[in-house]
Q: What sequence folds into this?
């Protein structure tokens, strides 16, 4: 059962930067021990994350020909990127997906968390239902994605049902291999990342606060709008960061579910990599990281996650 | 908020219906592909079922133009076990280290968070480029392993933060007061108390590695892991074999999840019983 609490708490810990860091008294003798204990993880992350990201930055200034990358310092990759009209279209496409998926997962996530926290009374049921929402996260994303194919296809279950019920005369074509299918798959894969942090924020709301508001004559809707919503904003911010970075960084879902008809910034980048055009791909990655970082910073500006969780 | 006997408001039923629909949305498509994986030999990618058979599971093993499913399965299990092991050791160590404030702790923390949020394909691209520039071959057990650790280690660390945040340090102090060495304290007090959390870290490490795609895509080298093999299948296999492999891989995930959760539940139950027995004994 601890695992459930962990799943809920890990996101809280994310913003609290480790509760212990703040609370523990500094011990001089312990500092060396802490270094030894954290060193292995820091070394692995430096070697396989820090260093590679630096390499991406460096290579984005390299030149290339048909087979190789040529060490030099040029700005051509960036100039090309900013000149091309495709760039703008790709970013528009990625941002569109990110915004729609964010809005849908937020509504779903908020309501699911609200149900689990305020309507489910028994702790055992709460844990059980939370697990039901969490378990798919630990199974294959590719399989969960392709499991929509028999549903949405031209002769799929959805169309069969619609025709059977006499709602449509001929199968709907837009269901599979379309933006619609991409969004369905994203929502299916990523709603959990919204549910868990919002659940965690809501679980810490003092329930007597809601009772007091109700006794003072506030209706259901006002209680949600004026108490639950503001007090869940940390979770909403964290969930938003997760969903937006996941959608902006995706290429696999958009490729499969759009049947190659839609593209995103990262799926275009993946094409460049497949064509061994590493320097332009690297430049594209650098710009994308800057944009996503700005978006995350913007969310963190709206909601001071650290202060809220520390308090 | 409620006492046990007051009536449920109508909103409860509305939310319950909404939640049920969400669960259907979450599981419905998956259940459908498990059913379709038993499609008869002449059946297609969707309903109706043309008989029931194990034909498509057989096709997985006999490897007719499907690719190296068996080989990639073995590789993925091995890699997942390796990732789980490294993630457990490194995250537990780092979690313990983070209990004190130390110079560089903020840097280490933000390095882990950045590693978690970074799009996986970029990490893979960076590792592939670094290996290329250094003249090294990429392989699933070196570059692939490293790439997956950039994803599982931050998760492991965050889980350890959550576990250690609830950890009562007075047990450790008691051990020291009773004359335990640092090593005895760690082995006989700290680690056993953290065991459920450690199992949680192992579960995340294993399943996240076993299903990882974006980070592994450019770093696995010449031999594919299972998710890469399945990904390749989605573009060129148009038979229920795809569903059969989906059913098999999901069963593996579920077995791992059930083993982890039930061992955590077992430990917790034994603890509650132990505490009750101790209370009874002291009462006599």
A:
């Amino acid at each position: 059962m601890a695992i459930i609490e962990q799943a809920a708490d890990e996101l809280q810990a994310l913003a609290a930067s480790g509760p212990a860091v703040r609370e523990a008294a500094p011990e001089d003798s312990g500092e060396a021990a802490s270094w030894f204990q954290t060193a292995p993880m820091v070394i692995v992350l430096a070697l396989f994350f820090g260093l590679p990201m630096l390499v991406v930055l460096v290579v984005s200034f390299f030149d290339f020909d048909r087979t190789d990358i040529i060490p030099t310092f040029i700005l051509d990759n960036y100039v090309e990127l900013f000149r091309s009209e495709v760039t703008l279209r790709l970013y528009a496409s990625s941002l569109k997906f990110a915004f729609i998926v964010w809005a849908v997962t937020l509504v779903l996530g908020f309501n699911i968390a609200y149900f689990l926290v305020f309507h489910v009374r028994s702790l055992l049921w709460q844990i059980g239902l939370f697990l039901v929402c969490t378990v798919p996260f630990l199974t294959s994303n590719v399989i969960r994605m392709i499991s929509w194919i028999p549903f949405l296809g031209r002769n799929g279950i959805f169309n069969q049902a619609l025709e059977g019920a006499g709602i449509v005369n001929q199968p709907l074509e837009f269901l599979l291999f379309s933006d619609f299918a991409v969004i369905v798959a994203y929502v299916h894969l990523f709603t959990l990342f919204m549910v868990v942090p919002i659940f965690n924020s809501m679980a810490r709301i003092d329930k007597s606060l809601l009772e007091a508001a109700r006794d003072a004559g506030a209706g259901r809707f006002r209680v949600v709008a004026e108490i639950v919503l503001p007090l869940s904003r940390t979770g909403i911010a964290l969930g938003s960061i997760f969903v937006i970075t996941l959608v902006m960084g995706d290429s696999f879902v958009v490729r499969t579910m759009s049947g190659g008809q839609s593209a995103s910034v990262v799926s275009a980048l993946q094409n460049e990599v497949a064509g061994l055009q590493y320097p332009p791909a690297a430049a594209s990655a650098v710009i994308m990281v800057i944009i996503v970082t700005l978006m995350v910073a913007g969310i963190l500006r709206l909601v001071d996650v650290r202060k809220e969780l520390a308090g | 908020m409620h006492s046990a006997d007051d009536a449920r408001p109508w909103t409860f039923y509305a939310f319950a219906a909404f939640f049920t629909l969400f669960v259907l949305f979450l599981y419905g498509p998956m259940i459908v592909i498990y059913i379709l994986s038993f499609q008869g030999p002449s059946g297609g990618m969707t309903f109706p079922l043309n008989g029931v058979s194990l034909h498509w599971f057989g096709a997985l093993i006999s490897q007719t133009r499907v690719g190296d499913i068996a080989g990639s399965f073995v590789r993925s299990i091995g890699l997942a076990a390796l990732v789980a092991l490294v993630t457990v050791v490194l995250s537990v160590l780092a979690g313990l280290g983070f209990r004190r404030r130390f110079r560089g702790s903020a840097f280490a923390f933000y390095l882990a968070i950045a590693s978690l949020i970074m799009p996986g394909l970029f990490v893979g691209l960076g590792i592939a480029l670094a290996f290329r520039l250094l003249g090294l071959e990429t392989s699933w057990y070196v570059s692939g392993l490293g790439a997956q650790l950039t994803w599982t280690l931050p998760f492991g660390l965050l889980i350890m933060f959550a576990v250690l945040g609830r950890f009562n340090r007075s047990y450790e102090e008691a051990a020291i007061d009773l004359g335990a060495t640092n090593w005895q304290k760690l082995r006989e007090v700290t680690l056993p108390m953290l065991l459920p959390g450690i199992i949680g870290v192992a579960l995340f490490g294993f399943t996240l590695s076993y299903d990882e795609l974006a980070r592994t895509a450019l770093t696995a080298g010449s031999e594919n892991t299972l998710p890469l093999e399945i990904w390749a299948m989605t573009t060129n296999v148009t038979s229920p074999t795809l569903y059969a492999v989906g059913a098999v891989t999901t069963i593996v995930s579920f077995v791992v999840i059930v083993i982890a959760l039930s061992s955590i539940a077992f430990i917790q139950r034994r603890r509650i019983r132990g505490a009750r027995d101790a209370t009874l004994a002291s009462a006599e």
User: Anything to note?
Assistant: Chain B has one domain: 16-264.
